[in-house]
């Protein structure tokens, strides 16, 4: 049994496997690591690529497209490593990326998950949107990163090279302790995709674990390989899943923040309407409708979390106490200066 299992969730990603899997395999060689491609019911030539070109890679068919969240849940339930790495199929790791992550996990048993520094594949001097050098959220649930505020990414000049505790690690490249993963129940499969890793990291911190970033480990991420940033589907998932995450994870005394967030969502809807972006406005409406319809299930999930006795840290210190959207609107578009 390998200590580390690097799991790439694939759905019709034949071209990404051709392009990036050789590098993943090469950088895992000699690291007590196994590479696994878990397949979400692909109909392209993905299985042929793996079976014919990568003899050391395990092909793990899931049978159908369960999405990112439930796909990983089903894949990792069949694995027995000590440490899992969730790695997007469009990620190219740098030399020596795996060892610093393992060292961080070995050094701190309370560390449940850690991510590398994530740079843009097409512009390696720039942080990549989905994780940069560690993720955070503000008090109203808006995510941002060390190296990325809203839609603005910073140039990487080594300014965020210090390992530290963060609020969330990116699902594009995240090492997670198998024991903690199972204790938390994995990702929320109802999310399908987007925000699911932030939700997991929040629940892990409620349980007393910490989340980290290790910038001595570097990967390069293409990004947008599944859904483009201007996709109504992506807007729908982000809005719906943000509400679900906050509903489950906020302590009773902080539930007012969810009310504020809902009001802000409707302001976003008004902006979309005013600018004629009808598909985006419709995505916000659908997100809130589905969130309301899912309340009975969310009540059960919240009860299992908060009434099970596992919550030991109800207010993680890694939540930014301000409003990142307002800060950005005032022209403050870098992580520098935040009290975190």
Shape: globular
Helix tally equals 11
Compute the separation of the termini in Å: 39 Å
User: Could you estimate the helical fraction of the residues in percent?
Assistant: 25-40%
Main β-sheet: number of strands, strand sense, barrel status? Answer: 10 strands, mixed
Q: Report low-confidence residues grouped into runs of 5 or more.
A: none
Tally of DSSP β-strands: 14
Beta fraction? 15-25%
- Classify the secondary structure makeup into a structural class: alpha/beta
Instruction: Tell me, rounded to a whole number, the average pLDDT.
Output: 96
Order of SSEs, N→C? EHEHEHEEHEEEEEEEEHHEHHHHH
Radius of gyration: 19 Å
Describe this structure in words.
- The chain is of the alpha/beta class.
- It has helices at 14-28, 46-53, 67-76, 98-107, 178-184, 196-206, 232-249, 256-274, 278-293, 295-306, 324-329; strands at residues 4-10, 33-39, 58-61, 83-87, 91-93, 111-120, 123-127, 135-137, 143-145, 148-149, 152-153, 164-166, 173-177, 210-221.
- Helix 1 (14-28) runs parallel beside helix 2 (46-53).
- The mean pLDDT is 96.
């Amino acid at each position: 049994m390998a200590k580390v299992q690097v799991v790439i969730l694939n759905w019709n990603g034949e071209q990404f496997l051709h392009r990036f899997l050789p590098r993943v395999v090469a950088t895992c060689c000699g690291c007590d690591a196994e590479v696994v491609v878990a397949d979400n019911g692909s109909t392209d030539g993905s299985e042929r690529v793996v079976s014919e070109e990568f003899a050391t890679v395990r092909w793990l068919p899931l049978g159908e497209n369960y999405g990112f969240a439930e796909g990983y849940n089903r894949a990792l339930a069949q694995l027995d490593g000590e440490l899992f790495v969730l790695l997007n199929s469009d990620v190219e790791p740098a030399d020596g990326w795996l060892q610093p992550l393992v060292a961080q996990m070995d050094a701190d048993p309370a560390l449940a998950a850690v991510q590398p520094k994530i740079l843009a594949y097409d512009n390696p001097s720039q942080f990549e949107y989905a994780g940069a050098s560690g993720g955070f959220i503000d008090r109203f649930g808006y995510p941002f990163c060390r190296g990325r505020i809203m839609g603005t990414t910073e140039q990487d000049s080594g300014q965020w090279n210090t390992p530290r505790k963060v609020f969330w690690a990116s699902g594009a490249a995240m090492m997670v302790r198998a024991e903690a993963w199972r204790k938390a129940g994995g990702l929320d499969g109802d999310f399908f995709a987007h925000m699911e890793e932030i939700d997991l990291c929040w629940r892990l911190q409620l349980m007393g674990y910490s989340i980290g970033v290790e910038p001595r480990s570097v990967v390069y991420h293409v990004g947008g390989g599944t859904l483009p940033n201007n996709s109504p589907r992506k807007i729908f998932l982000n809005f719906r899943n943000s509400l679900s995450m906050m509903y489950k994870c906020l302590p009773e005394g902080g539930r007012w923040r969810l009310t504020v967030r809902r009001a802000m969502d409707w302001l976003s809807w008004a902006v979309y309407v005013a600018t004629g972006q009808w598909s985006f406005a419709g995505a916000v409406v659908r997100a809130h409708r589905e969130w309301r319809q899912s309340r009975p299930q969310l009540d059960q999930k919240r009860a299992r979390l908060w009434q099970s006795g596992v919550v030991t840290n109800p207010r993680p210190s890694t939540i930014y106490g301000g409003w990142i959207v307002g800060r950005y609107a005032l022209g403050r578009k870098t992580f520098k200066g935040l009290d975190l």
